[in-house]
Amino acid sequence: MTKRIRQHANKAILILEQPWELDDGDANRSSVLPFIEGVAKMVGDIEVYHANFYDKRSFVKALDCLCKTKFKNTTVYIAAHGYKKKAGKVDIFDLMYLIAQKSNDYNITGVMLGTCFVGENTSTMQVCIEGSNLKWCAGYSSETLWFEGTLIDCAILAKMTYLNDFSEESTFIDSFAEALAPFSNSFIIGVDYRGNHVQLENSMQFVIQPTGKGKKARTVSSGVF
């Protein structure tokens, strides 16, 4: 049997998703996949790959499974429940480190953390991004509404997956700001650990590392909003 020669797009979004179980009857029904497939159809020139994970071991296997082809620009989307330093039962450092290790070989430039709370660990994001091919990471520092958060994630992924210039800090800030423009900064995206309402501008965190000698990873959330 001859091997199939398959043409693929220039950009990719790799979705690693933990089953949500949003209600008692949610037998793996809820998923971000159809939303991201919609983004790919709208933007064009984007391949979408998806795998489920349940813990660190399965996350490693899922990431290995999805990392098969090098695209001009690849973005990883982590969609999972989160709390403090855990995203889908995987420590945020381990998760970011594993992606960073793959980033050079598969030209992974960004990570969208579609999880509650783990976005507060900006120092961990910075440590893992530096020295890798990763240029940006975004996440929420509070609990987030599932549907509304997914729409925001889609807007950011649509904008950043198509970004080609990672050299200037202003380009990152402008791109993130444009992605969030349709949403209100004061929208109550969720609650904090004490149950207090949190606005989008106080939850969303952005870490970037522009290309270029001497440029280090840093948080630019205030600039975006």
Describe the protein's architecture and organization.
With 225 residues, the protein is an alpha/beta fold. The protein has a single domain (11-224), classed as Rossmann fold (3-Layer(aba) Sandwich). 36% of the residues lie in helices and 24% in strands. It has 8 helices and 12 strands. The longest helix has 16 residues, at 146-161.
List keywords for this structure.
about 25% strand; about 220 residues; seven-stranded mixed β-sheet; Rossmann fold; alpha/beta; three-stranded antiparallel β-sheet
What share of the residues does DSSP label as strand, in percent?
15-25%
Number of strands: 12
Distance between the termini: 55 Å
Unreliable residue stretches: none
State the CATH class.
Answer: Alpha Beta
Specify Rg, calculated over alpha carbons: 17 Å
Main sheet overview:
7 strands, mixed
Number of helices: 8
Question: What helical percentage do the residues reach?
Answer: 25-40%
How many domains in all?
1
Level-2 CATH architecture = 3-Layer(aba) Sandwich
Globally, the shape reads globular
Strand order of the largest sheet: 2-1-3-7-8-11-12
Would you give the CATH topology?
Rossmann fold
- On the 0 to 100 scale, the average pLDDT is 92
Q: Write the element-wise H/E pattern from the N-terminal end onward.
A: EHEHEEEEHEHEHHEEHEEH
Structural class from helices and strands?
Answer: alpha/beta
